[in-house]
Amino acid sequence: MKITFKKEKGWWPWQRRNLAERVAHHATHMSELIPANAHRDFFYDIKLKVIFTKFKNAYGDAYGFEDDPTSYEIRLSSTASDKRLVQTIYHEMCHIKQFYFEGLELSDTPVWKGETFSNTEYWNAPWEVEARKFEKKCWRIWKKELDFEGRF
What is the pTM of this model? Predict the structure, then answer.
């Protein structure tokens, strides 16, 4: 899996960018976008671009491209705290897994795992419920095992 990082507006300190990179790579393993037993040279044909930008009402989002089903982007809010940044990356990486492996299509009438959802509110949508659970699970692991600087 190739992951590139890009800032869209403003400046991000290298510490935050480094944090985001470490979390994104950990999330690829946790979400099984890269299997745990994969050789270090293993490479899926998934391309992910992480963009640091400004949001008014969200911490981040994730989306794919219809013309290239192996390309995805995650946009992260530059105003989020480090804790929220970590949690958001895990949450959005779960959506990337859902797009790639489970056929999640977010449109006017979302489709997930072959089922169409028409009047499902954001908070109750099954893909959002799953992403929040994944985010919480990964956050606990990050805080317990991978927070080397003791920042959280």
Answer: 0.86
